Amino acid sequence: MSADQTFPTVRTEINGVSVRNLAKSFGTPTYVYDAEKIAQRIADLQAFDVIRYAQKANSNLAVLDWVRRQGALVDAVSAFEIQRALAAGFVAAKDPPEIVYTADLFDEASLDLVVKHDIHVNCGSPTMIDQYGQRAPGRNITLRINPGFGHGHSQKTNTGGEQSKHGIWHDQVDDCLQRADRNGLGVTGLHMHIGSGTDLDHLAQVCGALEKTALQIGRSITCISAGGGLPTVYRGDERPVDLQRYFELWDGTRKRLEAAFDHPISLEIEPGRYLTAECGYLITEIRAIKQMGGNLFYLVDAGFNNLARPILYGAYHPMSICAAQENPNPHHQEVVVGGPLCESGDIFTQDEGGFVSCRSLPVAAVGDYLIIECAGAYGFVMSSNYNSKPMAAEVLLRDGKPHLVRTRQSFKDVIRGESIPE
Ligand SMILES: *Cc1c(COP(=O)(O)O)cnc(C)c1O
């Protein structure tokens, strides 16, 4: 990622493809993903032995296929995510495993799938070890450990500590090894997903906790995973993560374990947001503009049914305007950006806690396009049919060409499966 990234507030094209043409060809709201950006982010992480994409960030089949072509492997957290990975061409029973199932529980469908396809399992609870061992003795597993401390600015995104539901509590490792033994499972992998982000002091603590646990498990360990949580820059004033330092900390841990065990240890990283956040643009159309007391509102045709991060976490997304006509107004004004849903929280410019904030954007007219940027991760995948709104179309830009990779839902799609009793 470039060191001082600035986000434009006027945008006419996405990697050479006209926003107006995209909006005209595919309608609005539409998610556009720039494949080249995904490839660049994967290339950033080449120092790691395995880059395992956490597909929950963006699981469109075309994105998964593209990630696979760039040499990354994939993580799945549900039965259908396993099926998506298979549909996108990942092959399960390989070494290293191309698909890993990471969860704190099995439902029937996911347990059946991992057994059937020999999918490597990253167990986040002692129960999973018993359930898997009874069905598939002799296989190897990874343990996801909660080291007893977390990180994260929001209770909703914290992935460690006793408030978190994730992973096996650190003092139950011995019990879990016994469960694995009883069921004939080998513990070959160790995983911690704490999401230290840019806080490298905290990351050093996580590395230390992982190292200690690995030594406790012993020589059966052949793979360690740094988990996900690599941050991405959403605002001009944020600093990108120091990838070199990030890698060095984990590599140091790996090397000490290699020395202790006297065999090679593979180092995995499991990014979601880092690979796909930046590539995504949600193109919307401004459908109404109104002054309400001191606030000027741009109302667009996408809502939190399309992009939930602002209402969920008060997340900030860069925004830009593409005028429908030539010669846009060069002046800026402070605006609130909202959507069409019957819910007062349907505001894209809000801080954590739901406080509405303003954004300086170019003066625009009804019919102009407003692009919500850095929306490729945890965007479409969190969408819903609230207010019976159809889910947006998705477009992948590859080699300068737009490809429709998911059609906008029709009314029929939205009511599929519903029926009125006789
Ligand atoms: C969500 C998740 C990730 C990816 O997190 P990002 O913050 O998007 O990088 C990686 N691993 C696991 C187990 C996850 O649950």
Please name the defining characteristics of this protein.
24% strand; nine-stranded mixed β-sheet; 422 residues; binds pyridoxal-5'-phosphate; eight-stranded parallel beta barrel; alpha/beta
Summed over residues and divided by their number, the pLDDT gives a mean of 95
Number of helical segments? 12
Taking all Cα atoms into account, the compactness measure Rg is: 23 Å
List segments where confidence is low: pLDDT < 50 over at least 5 consecutive residues.
none
| Ligand types | pyridoxal-5'-phosphate
The number of strands is: 20
What structural class is derived from the secondary structure elements? alpha/beta
Distance between the ends? 59 Å
Strand content: 15-25%
Largest sheet: 9 strands, mixed
Helix fraction?
A: 25-40%
Shape: globular
Detailed description of the structure:
With 422 residues, the protein is an alpha/beta fold. The protein is built from twelve helices and 20 strands. It has helices at 19-26, 35-44, 61-69, 79-87, 108-117, 126-135, 173-182, 200-217, 243-261, 273-276, 309-313, 411-415, and strands spanning 13-14, 17-18, 30-34, 50-54, 73-76, 99-103, 120-123, 140-146, 168-169, 186-191, 223-225, 266-269, 280-292, 295-300, 319-322, 332-338, 359-362, 369-373, 393-398, 401-406. Strands 3, 13, 14, 15, 16, 17, 18, 19 and 20 form a nine-stranded mixed sheet that branches. The chain has an eight-stranded parallel barrel with strand order 4-5-6-7-8-10-11-12, surrounded by six helices. The protein has a two-stranded antiparallel ribbon with strand order 1-2. A hairpin with a 2-residue loop joins strand 1 and strand 2. It is globular. The relative contact order is 0.16. The model has no long low-confidence stretch (mean pLDDT 95).
